[in-house]
Write a structure and sequence with these properties.
two-stranded antiparallel sheet, globular, alpha/beta, TIM Barrel, 8-stranded parallel β-sheet, about 350 residues
Length: about 350
């Protein structure tokens, strides 16, 4: 079904109420090239004018630049009118030689060196650094960011112990004191919903790739656990990191790399069904995950005003129920996946 941007869904068992559609600000950090302050401000303004009131950020995006760009706009907006979330697990220090510092993968980001720290002090330091960059004295929720083994190598076990003892204590104190309304975890891999999320008590999660129009492999595992545990889910990459926004074109991106031929073929088949029903691929991608009972919001990104304006239209586009039925009949989405209703 089409969604109203003024609707609200409860995050877990908390007082935090999220709209079904928000804006993921990661690209304002300069994934491939520097996003100017003027363009970032115009993009944020376009989101605001389209009715977006939920903005998600993180220190990692642009090595701090993303929070600067988002905060530059939000600092002048009425604080009670918007929701802003960010993440913990990293803070920054000045590198020895900023001029020669490797900013990979944020080519347009800041020359700031990451310090991983999921302990009590590290979480508090990351939180306070984020407040300074955003120019705000509150955020609505904090997510434990990138807890998966691939990000940590041999340090993974020790850092997860820090998270499960000191880090979660810091987050629970911030929540108990009213500084944040909810705490969560941001992750990329489907197995993390089963193997890592249970390490700490959570109100909600941001998941990137595990549940999209192209992949419902976590439906009966991690996503089902979220239902059973009362953990809400925000879908952080409803376009599967690109291909569901651009279509299966040459150079289309999937899972933060280039899409392989089987993935493009699947996207092409979904796009063909969409065309038969007069549905845009982008609208299907944004609205599909919102039918899942654990999902409270989708937060696609954007780096131009026209991209976020288009996304706001897609989430309100009317999609006939026959479209979803044909996708299931063709085996293009899992047969028992929840789908939007009229």
């Amino acid at each position: 079904m089409a969604h109203k941007l003024t609707d609200r869904r409860q995050a877990g068992k908390t007082t935090l109420q999220l709209p079904p559609f928000g804006f993921g600000t990661a690209h304002l950090g300069g994934m491939y090239q520097r996003v100017s302050g003027e363009l970032a401000h115009a993009t944020m303004a376009a989101a605001w004018d389209a009715g977006v009131r939920f903005y998600d950020s993180a220190p990692w995006y642009g090595r701090g630049l993303c929070e600067h760009r988002a905060g530059d706009f939000l600092i002048d907006m009425p604080r009670h009118e918007f929701i802003v979330t960010t993440k913990v697990g990293r803070y920054f220090k000045r590198p020895t030689s900023p001029s020669s510092f490797d900013k990979t993968p944020w080519g347009g980001g800041l020359a700031m060196e990451v310090v991983w720290d999921y302990g009590y002090g590290g979480v508090m330091r990351a939180y306070e650094q984020s407040l300074l960059r955003l120019g705000l004295d509150t955020v609505d929720a904090l997510f434990i960011h990138d807890p998966e083994p691939g990000a940590h190598g041999e340090h993974h076990a020790a850092r997860m112990r820090d998270m499960a003892t000191g880090g979660i204590k810091a987050l629970e104190e911030l929540k108990a004191s009213g500084q944040i309304k909810a705490l969560g975890m941001g992750m990329n891999a489907a197995e993390s919903l089963v193997n890592i999320a249970p390490l700490v008590p959570l109100d909600f999660c941001i998941v990137a790739m595990p549940y999209t129009l192209l992949d419902q492999g976590s439906l009966s595992t991690g996503m089902q656990r979220c239902i059973e545990e009362g953990i809400s889910v925000v879908i952080g990459a409803p376009y599967a990191s690109g291909i569901l926004a651009t279509g299966p074109i040459e150079g289309a991106r999937y899972a933060y790399g280039f899409a392989d031929e089987p993935t493009k073929a699947r996207a092409r088949a979904i796009q063909a069904v969409a065309a038969r029903h007069g549905v845009s691929l982008q609208a299907a991608a944004l609205q599909f995950p919102l039918a899942h009972p654990a999902v409270v919001s989708v937060i696609p990104g954007g780096v131009k005003p026209e991209e976020v304006t288009a996304n706001a239209r897609y989430v309100t586009e009317v999609i006939p129920v026959d479209f979803w039925a044909e996708l299931k009949a063709e085996g293009l989405i899992v047969a028992d996946a929840p789908v939007p209703t009229a």
